[in-house]
Design goal:
Helices cover about 60% and strands about 5% of the residues. It has helices spanning about 1-5, 30-50, 60-85, 85-90, 105-125, 130-155, 180-200, 205, 210-225, 245-265; strands spanning about 20, 25-30, 210, 265. α2 (about 30-50) packs antiparallel against α6 (about 130-155). The longest helix has 27 residues, at about 60-85. It is globular, with a radius of gyration of 20 Å.
């Protein structure tokens, strides 16, 4: 313990959250993460869909990109409003529209994406779970980039720690903290992506529509609940009953839903 206390504190790499500023126009790393995540996810879904052309066409994938963007942005914003700041936005309802000021929640974005998937599949007469499996495989790309953007912004930092890789975040006091954003990028992004990639390579897995979607839901829920052990709870919410956090509470239904979808996954009818 004494050895850890004598180690030098790792300096937080103070990266300007604004990547490029031209007059009144500012391009932020966080916004860029959303755009790049959607583009890379779109290209990856196209590649996956080539293996099972009966699930969805290239045109359907191209057109769903707009639906996905709207679902993520609208759902993510409403999730932040309802799950984390309901009292504030009740007093300032117009600021719900000010998405450029920040404030997005993954669980809300996921619900928005699910709503977009259901409606799009219904209108196009596409197999819902087959399409959902493709999107689930690509989702960790956006999660990885989004968590890196959280790190750049110095937000959603971890709890205080004496770990040798702990660092002092701006606006979080003088004590070193876990870089929990990087933990989440690793677990929710990289690890989950590799797991789904490995599973999607097997034809038997791909034919069981819903299996990959269920694994994504369970995998994200487990990764998030583990990461929340190191992440500082939201200051205005704190710990909930039993010491759990809001992120852990919201992830529990995802774990149950994922387990249910996995149990119900059946080979698609040819």
């Amino acid at each position: 313990m004494l050895f850890l206390q004598t180690l030098p504190i790792i300096a937080y790499p103070a990266i300007d959250p604004v990547l490029l500023e031209i007059g009144p126009l500012a391009i932020r790393w966080y916004a860029l993460a959303y755009v790049v995540g959607l583009i890379l996810g779109w290209r990856y879904v196209i590649r996956l869909a080539r293996r099972d052309t009966e699930v969805v066409s290239r045109q359907d994938i191209d057109e769903f990109l707009v639906w996905a963007m709207l679902g993520i942005v609208i759902g993510g914003r409403l999730g932040s409003v309802l799950f984390y700041h309901p009292a504030y936005y009740l007093d300032h309802p117009l600021q719900i529209l000010f998405i450029w000021q920040g404030g997005m929640a993954f669980h809300g974005g996921l619900l928005g994406m699910i709503a977009a998937l259901v409606l799009f599949a219904y209108l196009r007469r596409l197999p819902l779970l087959g399409l959902a499996d493709l999107i689930a495989c690509a989702a960790p790309i956006g999660l990885f980039l989004g968590r890196l953007a959280n790190f750049v912004n110095g937000e959603l930092y971890g709890r205080t720690s004496q770990a040798p890789w702990a660092m002092v975040f701006p606006h979080a006091g003088a004590e070193p903290r876990h870089p929990s954003q990087l933990y989440e990028a690793l677990l929710e992004g990289l690890v989950l992506f590799v797991l789904l990639w490995a599973m999607a390579r097997r034809g038997g897995v791909r034919r069981r529509h819903g299996l990959l979607s269920g694994v994504f839901l369970c995998g994200y829920a487990i990764a998030r609940m583990i990461s929340e052990v190191f992440r500082a709870p939201d200051a205005h919410i704190g710990f909930l009953v039993g010491g759990i956090t809001m992120g852990q509470l919201l992830s529990l239904p995802l774990l149950l839903a994922g387990a249910y979808v996995i149990a119900r996954a059946r080979p698609a009818l040819s």
